[in-house]
Amino acid sequence: MDATSTSLAEDLQELQLERVIPRSLKTNEELDRLTVDEHLSDIERAVYLLSSGQDVQRICVISNLPDLIKNNNDECMRRVVPKVREVLHVAQTEMQLAASSAFLQILQQQIVPIQNYTQTFLQTILTSVESKDPDCANAWLETLLDVIDLLPKDVIKKEILGIAIAKGQLSQSVQARLACCRILGKVSTKFESFVIKKEILPVVQSLCQDVDYEVRGCMCQQLDPVARGLGLEATKSAILPELVELTNDEESYVRIIGLETVVNILTLLDNEICIYTIIPLVCKFCQQAIHSQDSTLPVIAKQLGKLCHGLWDKLTEDKKGWFLDQYRSLCRVGLEKSRSIDKDCPSKTDVSDLFDEEDKKVECRKNCSYNFPSMALLVGAKCFKIELHSTFVALCKDPHVLVRKKMAASFHEVAHILSSSAHTLQNELSLMLKDESIEVLRYIIMHLPETLDILSKGDSKTVTEARMNALSEIIPAILSAEIVVFASNDWRLQESLMKSLSCLPACCNSEDIYCKVIPVLFQKLKTSRAIPVRHAAAQTTLVLIRQLRKLEQREQLIHRLVSDFCHGKSCHHRSLFIDMCYFFIELFSKSFFKDHLFDYVLELTSDPVANVRLRMCFMLPSLKRQVKLPYDRNHLQLLEAAVRKILINEKDRDVNVAIKSAVEELDGIHVQMESIMSRRKNFEEDTEDQIKEEEEKQLIIMEEQDRKEEEQKAKLEKKGSSNSKIPAPKKAAPKSGTSSKGDYNRDFKKASSLPTAGGISSTSTKALSGGNKLTKPAAKSASALTPSATFSRKGSGSGVSSTSIASTLTSRRGSLTSAGSNSDTKSKSKVGNSTNGLNTGTKSRKTSK
Predict the structure, then answer these.
(1) What integer pLDDT is reported at residue 617 of this predicted model?
(2) Which of 156, 530, 602, 695 lies 20 to 30 Å from 78 when distance is taken between CA atoms?
(3) Residue 341: its pLDDT value, please?
(4) Which tens digit of pLDDT belongs to each residue from 19-33?
């Protein structure tokens, strides 16, 4: 114990915060040298610092030179600028870089006239381009190229062109000749074709034949702007022969740049040149690259898409097939079995060379993946299955992640191109979603809603039932991707996946979503660590619940949310329930929210955790906006009682501040009145809410129609079996409403492996019928519940009565819709006739009131 305590004391002593600093950072002499008289003007201070200041002070003055000239033009040009030019002769690299940037800003901002700039700053730039320091020379060269774009043509011809041509002579250094190539390419866009042909073209041709391969490559890179300045005829006679020779250069570096230049000037050339010169040149280049498999192989794979697009209209059918064969060959580079090595010849290949060779082949396949949408566009949707589908599958299964990543990034583009035939890519989409690489999944998830929309609809605007059933097979692949994504620490990708799942109702079967997807979302609501992920999962869960076809499933899941989160043991779950209520208000109608969640969320105003009560204070104004008198008088009374309770009993300081602020906001919110005079006005204000309510009614009508169709089908089957000579085995007739309610509950429990909500089971539906409202306080009487929260049961069935459901959904808005137009009234009456007693339910509601 003594040894342990001694070592602990020593460790604490080493970690002491206050330590004695042996000496100050700067001596008094150094501070004196850095001190400047504060009474000096800006110009005097700049001159003083440039003359006797430290390097850091000089850099600061040069960086601020544009502002100095702008504020003190004449004096600064007379005193400061000459001093700057003098300092630059012996300046270090950092100061040179600061000066090059400052000189460019002066011209861009037009602080000084062009004539003054030419006489001072331009001369310094031209001199500094010849600096022996490569970094400084390159920085000044980039500045000069930017300055050329801003200078007039006569200044360029007088001050720059002659110097550039002189730098291109063979007697000059390689650095000077490289600078000449870039300057000539830049100035070629400024002059007429006869000036280029007379003064620039001879130097260009000389540099294309230079002894140094870097100079040849640099000049080859500038042939595109030179050719555009010359025009088509001069290009055919002067530039094209040089370009053909450069693409056959002995150095692969020059050949690569030559091919890129060919691609760039395709739009300038006519059909004759393309057919008789460019196409044979490209074919020869491709054959050499594939045969030798040198460093040009990835480049030809990258440029093949642009080449095919530029030449496709000029190719014969045989040539089109040849280019497709070359593309398919490039997609297989490195995947064939390695050639057998002669045992008599010992291998001298270095390990690093083997890795370079493998990287080169992977780069080739990656570039092919990049070009796949381009090739698919050329082939078209009709011929895709024959020409490119097998190649598409091979690239999606490529062993290297970089190739699959490129395919994932362009998958939605290929689906767009195929359009009506995009459903043929469903297996490959499942394959990509089952990938174990996070990078591949990142790109496929990024465009998943767009891809699924194309696969489900194609050219049409609607989705067929058969198509939805087929696309439902993609759900296991999505859940496989979810396992890989949530095994990583990338919460942004997790959030993106949760948001992407909200697109499933538009393209997948409702029953599969209920049984397979929603249990996973419930699990993520409880186990996800990042708050944005939980919020995304909550929003997606509510979107999916709203789109479920069966009312019983929707009711069950909402009650489960109340049981697991509003009444949950964890304060984090109860806080998340408040966030769900915000999403609920955004997605569902006001009446649906008040019937299912209004009373429950108010219970959280008495939560034992202060943070939950604090969040509820911010929620109260949103709750009051849902209330509409006189039908919601009970809800308003509950809200006011909850506010009074917090004001009287609250002891937490932050909650007290929040509730006072909430009370002020509540006082400013006007409660809507359902009076005869305001019905039309309220209808116009709540158009969006009316649309939501109509959609919810439509779901009930669709469910009723499905139930009737099932009953009619069952009767026909029973009648057919009774008329047959051979008696068929007896089948249990489907019950009214939802015929497999117990099966759905069992599937949900099994898939989610989560405890079900209290009071919800296949045999007990008291919570849905109004008998027991989960864990509601006993003090709340049945009169406090809205009539639409109560559901009647048929005498013989387990399903929910369509009459009571439809009547309760329309009774709350009965008076509102009756004040509408005659067309609205007629549409409401049609809905009432289709739901077997909608008007009767509304009438009984008014009678009870």
Answers:
(1) 94
(2) 156
(3) 37
(4) 555 555 667 676 666
pLDDT value, residue 717? 77
Q: Which helix (H) or strand (E) holds 480?
A: helix 475-486
Residue ranges for the chain with pLDDT beneath 70: 1-26, 28, 30-34, 337-355, 459, 674-685, 720-849
Comparing CA positions, the residue from 191, 226, 190, 186 lying closest to residue 206 is: 226
Burial class of residue 143, CB neighbours in 10 A (0-12, 13-18, 19+): buried
pLDDT at 289: 87
Cα dihedral 265, 266, 270, 275, rounded to 10, equals: 130
Contacts of 69 (CB under 8 A, 6+ apart): 76, 77, 80, 81, 106, 111, 112
Do residues 222 and 184 lie in contact, with contact meaning Cβ atoms separated by under 8 Å? Answer: yes
Specify the pLDDT at position 605.
Answer: 92
Closest to 510 (Cα-Cα) out of 463, 580, 457: 463
Query: What per-residue confidence (pLDDT) applies to 388?
Result: 94
Phi/psi of residue 25, nearest 5 degrees:
-70, -35
Strand partners, 629: 673
Query: H or E segment at 673?
Result: strand 672-673
Contact indicator for 54, 84 with CB cutoff of 8 Å:
no
Torsions phi, psi for 248 (to 5 deg):
-105, 20
Confidence (pLDDT) at 816: 35
> What confidence score (pLDDT) does residue 385 get?
92
Strand partners, 793: 800
Which residue from 504, 540, 505 is spatially nearest to 521, judged by alpha carbons? 540
Could you please report the per-residue DSSP string of 151-217?
Answer: S-HHHIIIIIIHHHHHHTSTTS-HHHHHHHHHHHHHHTTTS-HHHIIIIIHHHHHHHHT-SSHHHHH
The rounded Cα 641 to chain-centroid distance in angstroms is 45
Dihedral angle, C-alpha 29, 30, 32, 35, nearest 10 °: 180
